[in-house]
């Protein structure tokens, strides 16, 4: 736990900062049976939108669908379903990112090979 006044690190459960003596805020445990609040579980919506736009549209759309389900399931009190949707959104974000990087890398490699092949033809006197 870090002191909000001086930033010093203190052991969990400390009441006062070991450096400056300021009173440390105490975390209150959630009451038993309390519904989780939206935002307490990452929904990966921003990441899903970014990988859709920048990397791989088909897999990014799957990530967006799962990411959009997280907050509504939390609001409905389905914490297990929200956790599952969050994990699937994260998984599909990674799949879209990796697929996009591989495909874009192949495209760049083919373009470079095409440029180099064109330069080789011109150097051999085959150009017009």
Keywords:
128 residues
Summarize this structure briefly.
By secondary structure, the chain is mostly helical.
Can you give a write-up of this model?
This protein is mostly helical and 128 residues long. It contains three helices and no strands. The protein has two domains: 1-28, no CATH class; 45-123. The mean pLDDT is 85.
Helix content: 55-70%
Beta-strand percent range: under 5%
Number of strands: 0
CA-based shape: elongated
Distance between the termini: 72 Å
The biggest beta sheet is recorded as: none
What is the multimeric organization of the chains shown?
A: single chain
Number of helices: 3
Mean pLDDT score: 85
How many individual domains? 2
Annotate the secondary structure layout.
Layout: H1 45-54, H2 57-75, H3 79-123
């Amino acid at each position: 736990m870090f002191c909000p006044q001086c930033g010093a690190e203190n052991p969990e459960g400390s009441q006062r900062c070991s450096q400056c003596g300021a009173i440390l805020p105490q975390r209150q445990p959630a009451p038993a049976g309390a519904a989780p609040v939206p935002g307490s579980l990452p929904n990966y919506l921003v990441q899903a939108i970014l990988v859709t736009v920048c990397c791989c549209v088909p897999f990014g759309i799957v990530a967006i669908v799962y990411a959009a389900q997280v907050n509504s399931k939390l609001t409905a009190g389905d914490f297990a379903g929200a956790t599952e949707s969050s994990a699937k959104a994260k998984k599909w974000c990674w799949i879209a990112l990796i697929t996009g990087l591989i495909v874009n890398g192949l495209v760049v490699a083919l373009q470079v090979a095409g440029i180099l092949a064109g330069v080789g033809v011109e150097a051999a006197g085959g150009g017009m």
